[in-house]
Each structure stands twice: as structure tokens, then as C-alpha cells.
Amino acid sequence: MVKICCIGAGYVGGPTMAVIALKCPSIEVAVVDISVPRINAWNSDQLPIYEPGLDDVVKQCRGKNLFFSTDVEKHVREADIVFVSVNTPTKTRGLGAGKAADLTYWESAARMIADVSKSDKIVVEKSTVPVKTAEAIEKILTHNSKGIKFQILSNPEFLAEGTAIQDLFNPDRVLIGGRETPEGNKAVQALKDVYAHWVPEDQILTTNLWSAELSKLAANAFLAQRISSVNAMSALCEATGADVTEVSYAVGKDTRIGPKFLNASVGFGGSCFQKDILNLVYICECNSLPEVAEYWRQVIKINDYQKNRFVNHVVSSMFNTVSNKKIAILGFAFKKDTGDTRETPAIDVCKGLLGDKARLSIFDPQVTEDQIQRDLTMNKFDWDHPLHLQPMSPTTVKQVTCVWDAYEATKDAHGICILTEWDEFRTLDFKRIYDNMQKPAFVFDGRNIVNAEQLREIGFIVYSIGKPLDAWLKDMPAVA
Ligand code: NAI
Description:
It is an enzyme of class 1 (oxidoreductase). This protein has 480 residues and is of the alpha/beta class. It has helices at 13-23, 36-42, 54-61, 72-78, 104-116, 133-143, 164-169, 182-195, 209-240, 244-252, 273-286, 290-317, 345-355, 369-377, 406-410, 430-435, 452-458, 471-474; strands at residues 3-7, 28-32, 66-69, 81-84, 121-125, 150-154, 174-178, 204-208, 326-330, 359-363, 400-402, 415-418, 442-445, 461-464. The longest helix has 32 residues, at 209-240. The protein is elongated. 1,4-dihydronicotinamide adenine dinucleotide binds at residues 7-13, 33-35, 38, 72, 85-88, 105, 108-109, 127-128, 157, 159, 161, 271-272, 386.
């Protein structure tokens, strides 16, 4: 029986391995992590991450051919294929701080693999890593190998949180990069055989190691660039009276461009886009390509601009001050159908409003109060580190309350900011909400999910990203 071990039981390692176990009953899959609470949660009824369909997949295979364990060394030692899916946050200190990927977790995993292995292994990079990481990993493994042979493969993960299970069941493509040697080809084939249990062969792409590593960074950069492009357009739409939804529909009808991923919003978030682009920028700089680096850096700058613009709209619309005003925040996760808050635009928007002394009442159907308090008090750079490595903040943000209901959040509020596109926000009873708010009552829709005309009829003053401005908002001072 082929044995797979995955180091890192996070948003990628957990779902990916659960699907491999489901689709390959003949393979034994162990997911290991140094975080005891995380592994305990994977072994309980309350999984550590929220992902539609995940519970069902885990329930079908856990205890049969899918195991979650903190005994990292044992499972690595026994495995034929070791996936490494540890976090690769942005470096916070030293050379490349603020841009380069922090490979501390990766390096320690690689050294541990070399230490405990007693048989040949295929080591698969699942984490997103800078180009040429495989070379460094190869060196660590071969210099410590005691004669054991390791083949390194790059197999970046393209799943999107919120649709991870569907993405894993029907991937657009699976990408496997390996060394172009007989041993390298054999290893690529072994991993291909795993995916071939459910992925059509023509969707399994094989490339050299560096192309696979770079493709993942490039794919995320292109995706984020689309969002920044449409967000940049949204600012121009507001200034000119055009409607960004109409513009992106017309643009997306061009088959060369396509309709997906063209929704204007308060900005992109998630653990990957920003860190992967920063990483790309750093690699470009290291390869003496400053123009290319600057080009990609703009994608992040526009994202920051969009979040600032949103906060400025809120404050300027409300008579240039939100001091001591209650603002309801609907949605804190970086997108719907996930509880993940890493790099969520809600953090920057909330911090911006708190900076102007607002009182916030936050509701998100999947994010806990603890997480929100931690995100709002944590130093920006630490968000991407695993929970167990983060210090719990001794102080809580006094101006923030978290509630479990949108009606409670909006009661007596002066304004509402919609920051995540949860489906349930589309069907709220806005008349009831309006009746319980201070007047004038404002809605700032950061995801363009409400029907602005209907809300205006109720009496709200509405700001929707990239849409023609309300007469009220037009008269307000220009926002930067
Ligand atoms: P995560 O932070 O949810 O999970 C990483 C896990 O690795 C943590 O539970 C941590 O405790 C564990 N870990 C760290 N060092 C370890 C060690 N030495 N031994 C055992 N366990 C260790 O991260 P996530 O989101 O799963 O991301 C993992 C990688 O996949 C990152 O490189 C990310 O860029 C990439 N990725 C993430 C996607 C996403 O949507 N979250 C999508 C595609 C790729």
C-alpha cells in the first residue's frame, strides 16, 4: 500500500489530503502537524476550518485510510510520498523583510525529513514557494541524507478557499514539476498515478521544477491583477457616472478576457495574493528586473488604495467624522463561505474606522470574536502565522463588539459597512434594519450585493463600489 504523509494540516493540507484519501482508497494518508489543537480539531466533530463539503469527505475516510496525527516523525518515516504544506508567510525581519517568503517552517520540515527517513522518498512541495526553492530543499536533503535518495517535486495547489472541495474534485489542472532525469520522471509518474485516480490525464500537466514553482506565483499575480484592474476602474466609474458592473460585463464579454473574477469590491484579501505578489516582486528585484517588480507592486498598491478609498467614503459621507458613532460591520472573513480572516480587507477598514474613533459592532457568520479581536490587535505582519505561534493579545479593542446577528449589529447604528459577500446579507429585511437605525442611515456596500435602488426607496443613503454616486455623496468633499 502506498503511504502518503502531509506535513501541515492547514487550509491546504487538510482538504487536499482528505480528497486524496477519498478518491484513492488503496492509499493510506496521514496528515501531521506540530499544532496539537489543530490536530485535535481534525479528529473531532468541529473541524478547524470551515469549508463547504469538507465535513462529509473527512467523515467518509477518517479512521479508514485518512489519519490526523501529531506524531510527525513516525508518519514521515513510514511514507513513500511526503507532501509539505506548511505556511510560507512573508518575512517580517532581516534580509527581504516585508517581501521575501519566510521559509523557516519549510526548512525545518526538510531537515526533519532528512533526519528521520530510513527509506527513499518523494518530497512534494505543496506550499507556495519562491522559484528555486526545490534546489535549496534538495541541498538540505542530500547533504543530510545518509545515502537515502530523495526526489523533489513541485505540485502547487490551486484550490480557492470557499470552494476547495469542488476545486479539488474537478481541478482546472494539476501541475507537477520535476527534475528531467530518469529518477525525476519516475517520481513525476508516481505522483501522476495518485491524481489519475480521479483527474483526467490531459489535465495533469508536467513541467520542469522551476516552471511549476513560478506558475503558481504567476497565477495568483494574474488573478489579483484582475481584481486591482476592475477596482481601479471602479474609482473612475464613480468619478464619471459610469457603472462598474456594466463596464465589467461589457469587458468580460470579450472571449479573450472572459467574465470571471471581474467584480469590483473593497479589495482582495486571503493569505495568498498579497504574499505571493510580494514574493514575486522580491524575486524580480533579486534578478535585477526593477521594472517588472514595480509593475506587480502596483497590484498591491491599488488594493491598499481601494481599502483607503472605502474608509474615506464612509467618514466623509458621515459629516467627516465617525467619532463615537456606531458602525455595523457585516462580514469579516476575506470572502464568503470561509472563516479565514488572513489579510481580509475588513481588518484595514475596521482599523481605519477605529482610527477615526468609531464604535464597531461586527457580525460574521463564521468568524469568532476571539479571531476578530486578535486580528484587530495583532501587528500586521503576524497575521499569517499559525494561531499557536501568536501571542494572545492581553488587551481587547474596547470600541469593538462582536454579535451573532445582523439585526443586532445594525441596531441603533449610524451606518452599515458590508465587507463580505455572504449570501445571507442579500436577503436581510432592510426595512426592519432601517427602522432601528439612527438617521440619516447609511449603507456602504463593499461587495455590491444589495439592491441600492430598493434601499434608497426605504430611505438609506447608499454607497456602492464603482456605481454612480448618490446625490448626498456627490456633495461631500472629494476623497483621496
Ligand atoms: P496554514 O497556516 O493553514 O497551515 C500550515 C500548517 O503547517 C499549520 O497548521 C502549522 O502548524 C503547520 N506547520 C508549520 N511548520 C510545521 C512543521 N515543521 N511540522 C509540522 N507542521 C508544521 O496554511 P495554508 O493556508 O494551508 O497554506 C499552506 C501553503 O499552501 C502556503 O504556502 C500557502 O501559500 C499555500 N496555499 C494556500 C492556499 C489557501 O487558499 N490557503 C491555496 C493554495 C496554496
